[in-house]
Structures are given as C-alpha cells and as structure tokens.
Amino acid sequence: ETPLDLEAVGPRIRPICLPSASNPSQYENVDAIVTGWGHTKSEARPRDSVNNLPIPNIYSSVCLHKHHKTVKHSLFYSVKRSPEKNDSGGPIVKDVGSHFILIGVVSWGYGCAHPSYPGVYARVTDAIDWITITSSSIRIRAHLNA
C-alpha cells in the first residue's frame, strides 16, 4: 500500500532500465560492468566500498569448453574475468551513454575472480515477463537528483 522509498533504503540506490525481451542476443559480445561488495582475494574480507568490474561477455560454447557443463540459454558468461566472492545476486549492466540497462545478475563462478573460468550470469531477458508482472504490483518512489 505504501510506495517503497528508494532514498530511505540508501542514497546510492536507484531504479535501472530493463532490457527488451524482443532481442535477447543484443547483449552478447558487449562490454558490461559488474557491481558488488565482494572479496577481492579468496581469503579477504568483504569490501567496505562498492567495486566495479568491467567484463566482456561471451557465447555459450566457450563456457561449455571451460566448465564442462550443460550450457543453458537463460545464462551468459564472461571470459578472462569473473565476479568476486560474495557478489552473487549483484547486477551486470550495460552503459548505453545516458543510462544503464540491467542485462544480467551474478550467478556463480569458480574461485575468486578466477581468470581461467568464465563468470556465469542469469540473463535478464529470459526473466523479463516475470520481472514485469512481479514489479507491476510494487509502487516505487524514486528521487533522482541530477
């Protein structure tokens, strides 16, 4: 009944644009940014500040070769860099100049940003119908200060 006030949640919490479900492959082989508070080394403590990790994402065949697992269309993968420990659930976004688009959610990877294994992300376009239906029942009040 009461709108969710994003400013009350945290000063850096803001709405994000969602991708179109009409062309799910439009975000393959593009540079993106993972954001999180995960560890920067396997034995390190979580960060006190947010970390941005620029990553290229890749096609499923490379992930199949590296992980030796069945590759699902609902996932996509990054090569050379993967998210840090405890970044699961964090956003992976595409900077399109005037705004960001949420293209994925951190799912899993081996070790802590292991360079030999692709990071694995849930593809937002595969869940866009569920997100739209679920979020349409939530009223959000956002104050965007320029």
Automatic annotation (TrEMBL):
One of the GO BP terms on file: proteolysis
- Return the SMART domains for the record: Tryp_SPc
What keywords does the record list, in alphabetical order? Disulfide bond
Report the Pfam families cross-referenced here. Trypsin
Q: Does the keyword Disulfide bond apply?
A: yes
Q: Which residues form the Peptidase S1 domain?
A: 1-136
Q: What is this protein called?
A: Peptidase S1 domain-containing protein
- Which PANTHER family does this UniProt record tie to the protein? SERINE PROTEASE HEPSIN (PTHR24253:SF153), TRANSMEMBRANE PROTEASE SERINE (PTHR24253)
List, in alphabetical order, the Gene Ontology terms for molecular function in this entry. serine-type endopeptidase activity
